[in-house]
Amino acid sequence: MGQLDGKTAIVTGGTSGIGLATAQRFAAEGAHVFVTGRRKDALDAAVATIGPRATGVRSDVSDLADLDRLYATVAQHGRRVDVLFANAGGGGFATLEQVTEQHFDETFGNNVKGMLFTVQKALPLLNDGASVILTGSTAGSVGSEAFGVYGASKAAVRSFARTWANELKGRAIRVNSISPGPIDTPGIDGLAADAEQRAQLKGFLTGQVPLGRMGRPDEVASAAVFLASDQSTFITGIELYVDGGINQI
User: Fold this and answer.
1) Which of 13, 67, 124, 136 makes a 20 to 30 Å CA pair with 216?
2) What's the CA gap between 101 and 108, in Å, rounded?
3) Which CATH class is domain 8-242?
4) Is 247 helix (H, G, I), strand (E, B) or coil?
């Protein structure tokens, strides 16, 4: 028996990296997983990788009509939601002098607006006792240079977890956040312009981590399974760091 047998889960931003690894783990633990992504080719590939317990829904979390379509699809399958992993998001480097309106709007549109309405629009389908997991970041609690807009957006995610845990306690819905440190994902690769810069960035990040390496997406997925399962039924409102100690030591 899996830890999520018979449950229905949603993973936004589930076509690569942490989202894909978590969707795979949820399915392996017995859940049926609805996976979202913005690109059809990547979404189809993710569903094929996850297997028959996955349903793909093309969706951009910053587009409220797309979110409505996501939840309509879940309802059309006759399902209610036990686990919501609100994971979609991203960002890029920009110093205070370099920040543009577009950079701000895209970052907050995905990480804050998208997060809020992903959870709000799920409420009618969430079962009492459901688990909601938000993807934060270690950047939300430090002042990483040129990462101010992204860090601020992830600080908002941490605040959401606290507030929503309080607001939804009457339905026994648990809301927690996971804050990954440097994880070796395509998202990290996308922060660099070329292979040389990627190597430099990863070398720098590795040097900051007490465990001496970058994390793997499956290590974050393991934390998500814990928060999704009955192993964490007395845990709500927390920020669970999966960071190799980078924000702890």
Assistant:
1) 67
2) 11
3) alpha beta
4) coil
